[in-house]
Request: fold
Amino acid sequence: MERSWWWKAVLYGCAVVLACLYLIPTVVPEDKRPDFFKDHFTKRIQLGLDLQGGLHLVYEVNIDKAVSSKVDRLSNDIEDALKKKAPDVTVGREGRDDIIVSFKNPAGLANVDAEMLKPYRHELDETSRDAAAGTLRLRYDPERVAEVEELALRQAIETIRGRVDKFGVAEPTIIKKGTDIVVELPGLKQSDFERIKSIIGRTAQLEFKIVDDGTEYMKKLGASLPKDGPIKAEPESWSEKHSNQQHEDVYLRTKDRAGLDKFIAGLSGDLAVPVDRELAIEEISPRDSGDAAPEKFYRTYLLKRRAGVTGEYLAMADATWDEMGRPEVSFTMNRQGSDMMGKLTGENVGRKMAIVLDDKITSAPVIESQISERGRITMGGYGDPFKLQQEVKDLVAVLRSGALPAPLKKSFETQVGATMGQDSIDKAKFSMMIGAIAVVLFMLIYYRLAGFIANVAMVLNMLFMVAILAAFEASLTLPGIAGLVLTIGMAVDSNIIIYERIREELRHGKSPRTAVDAGFQRAFWTVFDAHVTNFVAGIVLYSYGSGPIRGFAVTLLVGIVSNLLTSVWISRWMFDLIVGRRGSVSATLSI
Amino acid sequence: MAANQKFFEIIKPGIDLDFIGKQKYWIGTSIILVLATCIMLPLNAYVFTSRGHMLNWNVEFRGGTEIVVDFAKPVDAHAVREALSAKGFDNVDVVTYGSTMERGSNNAFMIRLGAVSAMSSDQAKKVEVALARVGDATLKKFEFSEGGDKVYIRFDKALEPTVLADALKAAGTSTTQKGVQQFGPPQDHTYEATLVGLESEVRVALDAKLGAGAVSSIPQVSSVGAKAGKELQLDGIRALLGAILLIVVYIAFRFDFRYGPGTIVALLHDAVITVGAFAVTYKEFSLTTLAAILTIIGYSMSDTIVVFDRIRENASRYRDRAFDRVVNHAINETLSRTILTSCTVFFVTLAMNIFGTGVIRDFAFAMNVGVVVGTYSSIFIASPILIWLNDKYVAAQKRQAARPTAPRRPIRRDEEEAVET
Reply:
């Protein structure tokens, strides 16, 4: 035996051992696995949604609805402002983006000057002005639409994630695909489908709510908690910047979010949350706080239930720096919003104002002075500047997209019950067995020993395929199984092509060794080309398909690669074992 | 010595069938099949009223909702249809789902609805009227777009979302308790109501007509908006053409340009005839079917490559022979492997077709048809086109190069004739 043969033996042996190692987490149940696997080989094949059961949803962000209601609001705002100066004004709307201002007396157009339009400069562009007819056309800034679309998508994904997390779905997938949001919730109970669908589809709301501090209720609630329970009551205090008035409050703090939710939901009788208040939760990650605590935790705020101002009144938000060079968020309210914000903050100087996105507090800064048109949110001065910067950006994204709440529109839905999946798996397994047995028998009868080699190669091919799928934690879908079965059929094809070539060479009177050499050599490019074309089809399929089809494409691609390895190189190596012994060249070849 | 070795052979090595000589029959058959497909598609859409579409598009392409309903006891498809139309569902398609053998019970039905949401525009109008006054608030605007799962309702006064949810329920549409929320600024008094899924409405309708508890479970629901469906159709066609183009580019690169057109025609031929099989049987055409067609294209190509490879090899070896004879000989030489490789795939997919379920079955059916057609096309379609192109090429070269240099491509049909005469 040649030396290189032994080297290959070692190489292929290692590949097989490695494949087996990767397979074990998928095949052996967790409690029976040796400890070694808990640390090193944990990845396993996931069952796709169609096999495991679950919910698959695709949403598109309904940006048209969002923009159109935003422009409606702006047009009302402008009408209010102009009516005071020129009662003969009419402000109309056209399409999604346009506002048309017209005056009976064309001279009234002079009222619409730069000063008047100043609050809208970020959002509206003047597209035409007809002094003779007394009309003016304003259009919603197209750049803002594009920007908002992107922000809305990002915000929607975050919101959906937050909502799904509450349901405790094991491995939710929430991803952006183009302008769509794909949500996959495998293993979700069928009874939860309806509930979770209605919750996911809701439009996220951005609200500014005042924190009610120093209440008797919070003190009472804090006192009712056991001393060493998972939820602790913590006091906090801050002083008003100008009057130095002290504010004191009690809040609840825990690391167990679910426990806190449960605790709040269970409050009743004396401890029930007052009707016009709500207990909202903020997630504090370690980077936000000066605490040494390395883990994130959750804290509560007692909020006034009715929102003072909502995100729709925001005109603009930007990341800026304060006079000390610390990052901060500055925002501008529109005309109507300025009045409301002025009232809200004027009455509550010194208190905290929570910025609530979809019932989750994003930030709760102290109101230092009355805010009307413009406000600034200074970030807490802890942490490293880079992270602070990141936080500022996040808040800006929330504020900007909150200014235009974009409803989600469901465009695609698949629900699969778990029983359906098991049934399909069983049927697929059965047909796989039948197919495999047929192919194995055929190869043995037709090619005898060589057929046996092809069968070994086929089994190895399956082994490698499944191992690679496990290593990538690919999900196995119903079409994916079809791909696996199909691979059984195709795996032996390369061997058939090669063997037929070898037979031809033998018929020409060549010795087994030269025939094998020539057969593998000549057939290689044929086999290679065939694999490449299949691979191309697979790649197109992968880039086109979604969900289950992707699963098919992945098995197909993986199958093609491992097939080339097993049916060309590994079977060649096995042939060398038969025909390659120097000095003992067999006269015939069992093929 | 080894030359006398006997092999187990189905197709004997000495086989010499005249494929090319009879090519007009084969090509004729293909043309008939392709034409049949082209005729069948409009027939399905416009003549066979029970079919109504060119292909039995799955909900993914058609848009709408597909609901599998498992009944507790045997029911009649007709009764199901009636129960649904009584509730105002139009264009309902009810078919038995799976066979007795397959599922152990034949109480399952696939219900196909054109609608995506639980509210039709007729219903929406009724709801709008019913909501004219809720408490002391008056309706100002009722916004619902066909196929949407949300309604935007604006009042002149503030309302508690739960009150509105109750009012909606009273009007005959249901949302969940959390399904109604404020939309936009509070001063707008606008509310967003998310409607419950169509399947819940279907369940209610069926239970009402067939007795409570008639529906034992709803194991599968899929719904696709009409727009998304159209996009998927377009994307599918694009993917198909993209795959064909890429494969042809590869072939042109690996072989030479004369081998390209034959493969394009063969691939298109395979795709069209497979689609034709779906048009005739009116089996469901889904994304998985499309995946199967793409696989068929790849697979059919491998078949063609086996033949073409041999043609190329023989063409340079037997320079003195006529090209069409070389091709015919190459086809015969590779016939055994062509048939064998196709058989293994055919039987494996046949097993899937017989024993599989749902998508797997449709996939396998497409593969069965495609493998047969794909094998056929590499012999009877791709090769004749190659010969034809080669003839043209040689003729053109001869005309162009009237000078007495030896032809670069020696695969000339006329050369042999010249020797004989």
Chain B touches chain A through 96 residues (CB under 8 Å). Confidence is low (pLDDT under 50) at residues 99-103, 414-421 of chain B. Chain B has three domains: 13-42+226-400, 64-117+199-224, 121-196.
